[in-house]
Amino acid sequence: MDTRIATDLLEAQSLLKSGKLVAIPTETVYGLAANALNADAVIHIFETKNRPHFDPLIVHVSGLDQVDTVASHIPESAYKLMEELWPGPLTIVLQKHERIPHIVTSGLDTVGVRMPNHALTLELLRSLNFPLAAPSANPFGYISPTSAQHVAEQLGDRIPLILDGGECTIGVESTIIDCSGDTPTILRLGGTAVETIEEIIGPVQVNAISTSSPQAPGMLHSHYAPRKPMLVGNIHELLHEHGSDVSILSFKDSFHNFRNIRLSETGDLHEAARKLFAAMRKLDADQHSIIIAEFVPDYGLGRAINDRLKRAAAK
Ligand code: TXA
Ligand code: MG
pLDDT (tens digit, 9 = 90+) per residue, 67-83? Predict the structure, then answer.
């Protein structure tokens, strides 16, 4: 298939209306989108990504007014979060509206909903009369794409159009909070800090631990992973153990005699999140056999970065 990388919204609209897939930019990572109300179109997403059917998709909406067309029984806490934090890197799990096909939610009676903060994609969403189901636009289990080129490298020949919205400004996936039950619970650490959420709705439970059970969706132990082995710990100790055939992913220190990418010279967690996945891809593609990395401070976006490092290192 000839893939176009373009900013052509009209072409994106017409492909999506006819049940085709389009890769879309968001502030977190690129998504692989289809009409969320068209089950046949959504099946193509699972096939194209090699994604297991037990892993549900996020439904992207153009604004708060579209939420009650995809979800029902929306609690006050969810409205508060939407009003304060949308558009932005926060997915809210709610009771599913009957219009949403079961394939989208993998048979769950809840649906994850998000309004992305990206001008091109918001314009696209507003121009359509249906929401977009979209997982990250990577083969299942691999590192998520943060540029149109990343999408093209891996799914390029399998989709007709990649909407090019530049590099993602957040760089890690959205935080997922389940507001469908009695206690709001974080299911995935991501681009919205837990602290930010707690300022708005008070204390929340964080249940984003690794598991290999598919029933805790999206929380697969090994995920976001490079192809070569990755080890996370004290870089000096890891160097001592593994010798020189390594690439180093450091937070702010540099290691001059080695292949090294550092995430933020100034120790800025936002910058580190933005650069994380592109850095993992680059190190995965170089000639060394192992990636060694270190954790970053465990607060704010640092918690999401550390979560991705742990999953990338899990095998
Ligand atoms: O930032 C993001 O969230 C990106 C962009 C494209 O929006 N999307 C994304 O999608 O990361 P994906 O499919 O790679 O990850 C979504 C996660 C999945 O692991 C899935 O299990 C979880 O969200 N999820 C979706 N619906 C759910 C539901 N109803 N209950 C619990 N988890 C759900
Ligand atoms: Mg994903």
Answer: 999 999 999 999 999 99
